[in-house]
Design goal:
The protein is an alpha/beta fold. The protein has one domain: Aldolase class I (TIM Barrel). Helix content is 31%, strand content 20%. The chain has an eight-stranded mixed β-sheet with strand order 2-3-5-6-7-8-9-10. A two-stranded antiparallel sheet has the order 1-4. It is globular, with a radius of gyration of 17 Å. The mean pLDDT is 97.
């Protein structure tokens, strides 16, 4: 049985913690989180670059920080991860990253030990869960990466995957918006993949309350105009840009 490769918290342990969901349709819900390491994309504004931008990784990031792999990754057996999650006493689990669906095998083993917990998976939408994971998922939070993320569209926007998620009523789409013009790209993706507007969230890019509020001033009217939902980043307002929150 393979280990899960987890991100680390500030004390060097696996980033498994209880908090509230800060984004999307379940915002404000008490949940357990597990944050996995590694990602197949590289967003220039990523606020969890410690999950993928290790020494020797030359993919661009606006902070330019290279993280030591040994200090920011920890291997944990599925059984130990499940025990830590169960000990938090929450009814719902959010699996995030990085890109968590890069580790389908050990994730499936972990979820098999947690059959009674509700499950959310946060994904960039470039891959799909294995059948052993998919049967246990209650909600997908799909965050396709727009051009301003710095990722090549051929890697970040895979038509077959986006079609699959658009057809899945469990999947909600959360688009990170940095400028008003980004919404035009969302509208094109909505048209191309026939994504219902009620399952689309627009979320301002930012890691401070001030940056989020400034962008929400013009983003809220755009949500109203196009029938999209506005997502805040509640954890930023409560805890700042920090790990295990």
């Amino acid at each position: 049985m393979a280990d899960l490769i987890c991100a680390t918290d500030d004390k060097g342990g696996a980033e498994i913690f209880a908090s509230i969901q800060g984004e999307g349709p379940r915002m404000g819900t008490p949940v357990a989180f597990i944050r996995l390491s590694r990602c197949n994309l590289a967003c220039v504004w990523c606020d969890t670059a410690y999950t993928w931008r290790f020494e020797g990784d030359n993919r661009p990031h606006r902070d330019g920080i290279e993280y030591e792999r040994k200090a920011n990754q920890v291997a944990l057996s599925p059984a130990k991860a499940a025990a830590k999650i169960a000990a938090l006493g929450q009814k719902r689990l959010v699996i995030t990253g990085g890109e968590p669906l890069m580790q389908c095998g050990p994730l499936a083993d972990m979820l098999a030990i947690l059959p009674d917990i509700e499950v959310e998976v946060e994904t960039n939408g470039t891959t799909r869960a294995s059948a052993h994971i998919d049967i246990r998922v209650d909600q997908y939070n799909v965050s396709p990466k727009l051009a301003h993320s710095g990722n090549d569209a051929s890697l970040a926007l895979i038509a077959e995957r986006l079609d699959d998620y658009a057809a899945d009523p469990r999947a909600f789409f959360k688009f990170v918006i940095a400028e008003p013009g980004d919404v035009a790209e969302v509208l094109e993706l909505q048209r191309r993949h026939r994504i219902p507007a009620k399952r689309i969230f627009l979320m301002a890019e930012g890691t401070t309350s001030e940056a989020l509020r400034a962008r929400q001033e013009w983003l809220a009217p755009l949500c109203l105009e196009h029938g999209f939902r506005l997502s805040d980043r509640l954890h930023i307002h409560l805890y700042g840009d920090s790990r295990a929150t």
